[in-house]
Each structure stands twice: as structure tokens, then as C-alpha cells.
Amino acid sequence: MDERLIGQIGDLVAARNWPAVAEIGRGGLAAGGTSSERAHYLAANCMAARMLGLTEDARRTYDHSIGSIRAPDHPRLFPILATAAIASDACDDLERLFRMQFPHARFRRISISPLGTFTSWCRENAITTTVIPPESFDVTGSHSWSYTSDPFEIAVIPGAEFISGWDYVIAPTGHVLADSGYMPPEVAFPKFFPQVPVPAVGLIGHASDAETIDLPGRVLFLSVPEQFHVGHWLVDFLPRLRALMHVPAGVKVALPHEAPRKFFEMLSLFGIDGDRLALCELGKRYRAQSLVVARPGNYFRPRPSTIRTLHRVLGPPANPLRKPARRLFFERGAKSRQIMNRADVDAVLEEFGFTTINLAHLSVAEQRTLLEDTEIAVGAFGSDLHSAYFMPENSSVLELIWDAAKDPVTRSNCQIMGIRHEFLICADAGTSQQQGHQKDRDFVVDCADLKTALRGLLKL
């Protein structure tokens, strides 16, 4: 399909010029063409018909045209075919598309819901929100910057719903609150509960279930990240617990019972276990009598008071007489972000008295025991470095990375907790053994630079 025509359709959609979008869509469908062309024209026609109040026309056009788009083109055409199905309320077809595109996802069924935002929906429905003002922080040292966090917003929404394991709140009006999750809905989660938003028409296709289970009382929507990612659990989800300080006592915390043991171990440190938990089943739909919804803000700009609160609970008690002595190297469990000259690096680490550990193999209790007596930790950019929450003040973290701009989180978190942090800039190998993310790169460590960095942090 002509790229200029795709761009023209996109521009008209962005401008909300729906009559012009409809004209292009109708003309294109009448002219025939390849599967790709027909899919784009169909989506344009269905979106325009919906926004012009012609929902039945959108559905009829969809039903008439969808059969002429060949299945072999499906993976490449999934986003545009899903857009057409959503705009025309073709929920059964949308579910088939999801099952073809995401064969390993955990959803039970697919629904189409209207999109909303937390602040706007609460204002329009007279729901009181508690807003804790933003906080600022200056990151110092060789890589310095300043930032202001987002405000921390909290609301108690009667009758709100959620799909256990899907990190978005469904308001009692049926709106999916697009900014209630830790990632924008445009980021798909193919292994858990994928979604396809179509902001132009204010709709989203998403995981759902045939029945809704009621949860009595007040429940905090804590949720879990995609594939139970421990790093995101620490920086995106645990901060939501601060909402419990701003609502009446007796709130339970909703979490899938399938969550990893480490999640429950960390929650127990906050006194949340046993009957404080509202255990749910992945993929099932729940309606809380009152759902506590917390929006702690973007973790790229962490709120200093929240980080310090987490560190007080997860880390060792402050002790000015403490002299930690352990030196640890974090070996990544994943096959991404690997050190290409590992043997050379191991020799340097041995020279400086380091012990290599794999945090993935250790319980939270074992990690805390090791890290509370750690003088310095070295590791590649990634989730392992968030274990600094378990380390004492005045300890050190050396982060191996090829571009400091890739990680705006670890340095600020460490400095907020009173932990020294330095980047060791390495040579980008340009690829990774296991490319799971655009930030995944293997790298080469300059061992002379490594020795210099270690001597500086250890004051040798």
C-alpha cells in the first residue's frame, strides 16, 4: 500500500476529519486491492462510521469485507484488523485475532470497552482524589540531572473492577482507565494479558472474563507486572502501598495467588500477609465494594519520600557503626546484557575479593542477609541493581552499562537511599545473546577502567 496514503489516513484521523476518512475508506474498499490495502481501508471506514454515529454501518461494512482479507497476512495486519474489529464491535472476531496473535497469553475472553483517564473520570463522577504534591531531587556526580516527580494520586472508587494480572482499573461505568497501569496501554503484554487501544475512537480491546466475582470491603489494587517481573514489582508496584497511609485502616491488598513467593515475602515485611491479602486468580474479573487506586507516578522520576520509605522497610536498620565488608558481583540469570570478556572481568573481581551470586536463585530473606552486609555491588544494568533496596546506607553500586542515558532510575534511587552509585561505561557489542528488549545489548568491559572505578569506590 502506498505509504503516502497510509500517512494521509493517519493525518485525517489525527485531525478527526471523519467525513474525509470515510470517503477514503469507502473508495478504497470499492476499488479492491491487496489484503493490506483492504485492511487499511476497512479500518478507516469502520473508525469513521463509528465516530459519525453510524455504528451499524461500521458493522455491516466489516462483516461484508473481512472475508476478503486473507489469513496468511494476519500477523503483519493484526494491529489494523484489530482496529477495524474494535471500531465495529466485532468482539468475536477480535477474540479470534487475539488468539492467533497471542497464542501463549492467559486471557479467558476478550471485551471491547470505552477508554478513560483516572483524573478525568474521577472528576466527572464526583470521586474525591487525594493528591500528594510532586517532589524534586538533584542527582549529583559525573552523570547529574534534576527532576520533579509526578504527584501521587489516590482515589477510592466504589464498584470498580479489575482483571487479576492485568494492570488497569475498570471503572463502574465500564471505562478502562488508561493511566491506572504501570505502562501505557499502547505497550502490549503478549505473555499475560495483551490489549489493543484505539484512542482515536476511545475504545480498547482487552482481556476479560464471563463472570465477575465480588470482593467485600475496601481493597487496594496492587496488581503485578507482566510475567511477574521483579524489577518492575519493586519500582512500580510496591510504591502503591503508600496509599494505605491515606485511607482508613482495614484495607486488604489484592494480588494473584499465582504471584512468586518473593512478592509475598516482600509484602510480609510491610505487615501484609494472611487476612490482609485478597488473593485472586489470574485472568478472573473482580468487582471491589470499594477499590483503592494509587497512581505513584512515573518510576523514571522516583519520589524521594517513597524510595526512603521502601528502603526503611526493605533495607537494614540505620547503624552508623556498621562496617559492611562483603563485595558482590551480580550474575544475570537472563542471557541478555552479558559481558563479552567475562574471563578478564572475573580475574579483576577475584583480585578485589568479590563473590559472584545469582539473585534469581535466592529468597528475599537470603538476599537481605547477604546485602545488609555488602560494601559494594557490581552488576549490569537491569533489575538486579534494584536489590540496592536491601543494602545499607554508605554502601556502593557500580553499574556496568554502555549508555548511561538508558537507565535514569538506579542512580537516582541509590542516591536517595544514601548509597553511592557510579556508571562504568562499556563498549556496546551491538547485539545480545537473548534479545528480549530494545535495551538489551551485550558489552565489553575495559578492565583498566574497572580497576580504577573499584579503587575509587573502595577508597583504595
**Radius of gyration, taken over Cα atoms and rounded to an integer in Å:** 25 Å
Number of helices: 14
Spatial gap, N to C terminus: 64 Å
> What is the share of helical residues?
25-40%
Low-confidence stretches: none
Strand content: 15-25%
Number of domain units: 3
Kindly name the structural category: alpha/beta
Number of strands: 21
Label the overall shape.
globular
Summed over residues and divided by their number, the pLDDT gives a mean of 92
Largest sheet: 12 strands, mixed
Notes on the structure:
Helix content is 33%, strand content 23%. With 460 residues, the chain is an alpha/beta fold. The strands form four sheets. Strands 1, 2, 5, 6, 7, 8, 9, 10, 11, 12, 13 and 14 form a twelve-stranded mixed beta sheet that branches. A five-stranded parallel beta sheet has the order 16-15-17-18-19, with helices on both faces. The protein has a two-stranded antiparallel sheet with strand order 3-4. Helix 11 (342-351) links the parallel strand 15 (326-330) and strand 16. The longest helix has 17 residues, at 35-51. The N and C termini lie far apart (64 Å).
